[in-house]
Amino acid sequence: MNGTLKRAAVACIVMFGLLMINVNYLGAVKAGDYSTDNRNQRSFYARYAIDRGWITADDGKTTLAKTVDTGDKTFRYEREYPNGRMYAHVLGFFAPESARGIELNENKLLNGSDPDLVVGRLIDFVSKKPPKGASVDLTLIPAAQKVAYDKLRASGKRGAVVALNPKNGAIQVMVSLPTYDPNELAIPDRGDVAKAYNKLAKDDTDPLLNRVTEKTYPPGSTFKVVTAAAFLEADRSRDPETTVPAPQVLDLPDTTAGLPNYGGAACGSGEVTLRFALERSCNTPFGQMGMDLGWEKMREESAKFGIGEPIQFDLPTADTTIGPEEETAALAQLSIGQRNNQQTPLQMAQIASAIANSGVLMKPTLINKITDPGGSVIEELKGEQLTEALSGEVADELKQMMVSVITNGTGTGAQIPGVTVAGKTGTAEAGDAPAPHAWFIGFAPAEDPQTAICVFIEAGSAGNDATGGGTAAPLARDVMQAVLEAK
Questions:
Q1: What is residue 121's DSSP assignment?
Q2: Distance between CA atoms of 319 and 339, rounded to whole angstroms?
Q3: Fewer CB near the last or first residue (10 Å), C or N of the chain?
Q4: Tens-place pLDDT, residues 101-111
Q5: Cβ proximity of 228 and 401 under 8 Å
Q6: Residues sharing a CB contact under 8 Å with residue 298, sequence separation 6 or more, in sequence order
Q7: CB 56 within 8 A of CB 137
Q8: First and final CA of the chain: distance in angstroms?
Q9: Does the model's pTM come out above 0.70?
Q10: Residue 401 · residue 274 · CB < 8 Å
């Protein structure tokens, strides 16, 4: 073989080798990128060839998301959401090029591509049946969800309601307003969906935002239960009848500003019991407690409740914090839920839940069970403990004081006839806005808690005089009652 032929042969071998490397690179490394690329028309049409699993509640009795067989060869299966607005921030949506909420988090199960469904997928392929996904049943209680949604919507307020079973972490209610209709984002028309989404994204009221999990706010006086927990755990000779200083205005170090009580009111005679301070939601005793405890103890106590760590949950959650370490005066403010103290309604519900559950904090979840297309259970709610946030003894003392808040204090609006309710109200300054946020956390029945709740009403949507006791507590009462009646 002459030199020219040898060089040509070598060049062919090299090019063939490069071609094989490229083929393997595209197939093994870049395949995922190409399959999810919005320009991939094949991937777009494939989304509508799958009989996507249904999303239900109440052990399958209530349909929240379903797949409809249109008979169309191009877009055979389309997604529909009965009562979509009520459940939008939980379900999310299954759009032509994206997904959100449970539709995204459980996507591999819903579309049948999860490894647990591989056998069924193979059988469908061999028998030439359309691929079918698993069904996901949620922990939500539809009757209570409806009460929360209807009451909050009728009020015209922006805000969030979340309730959960403190014993196993099952989310019973999750409502965020304003909301949107996920059906408008589920049609197989990319142009129309893009217009609908862009309109929602530009809306100043943030209807796409899940206020339960995706944004933090100053929790106001609801945070005083954490400060009280730290105060009690720091010295076990203390109890709800321990007296604490309660001046009308608390002098703060290194500043001419003082910390007053709400509305500048007095708190008893200047020295009150811890129970009385929580009942009346006095600021000055809790501000002093925070400064006396110091940054380390306040940060440790907050961390026990999960603050500062990402919440392990089925939906995206915002980071919570009590803020960076600053001057001592800042401690007084964060101890009453102000300054740089930022919490989500889900986090505050978790705090109420831990107190209700004798100090044990459970992992929150929306998933009740997952069943394959044949009806066999793949996954089922068992309940998972996260931490012991506080001792059972301290939890019981906090529970007693929170019952007093409802019977004798700022939370009388949450009373339920024949049921012992425990709770804490909160009214939080919202930056420079003249109107405050209104909060309520609590649980019922106090003797054997079946539900723990957080209601949050966003600043400006309830007027300048909004308070946790007057604005948020009555809604919490109605939702807790609905949960208890549904059980």
A1: H
A2: 16
A3: N
A4: 999 999 999 99
A5: yes
A6: 227, 230, 290, 322, 331, 334, 335
A7: yes
A8: 88
A9: yes
A10: yes
